[in-house]
Amino acid sequence: MLAMNDNAVFLTDRGVSIASKPA
Question: How many helices (H) and strands (E) are present in the chain, helices listed first?
Answer without folding.
Answer: 1, 0
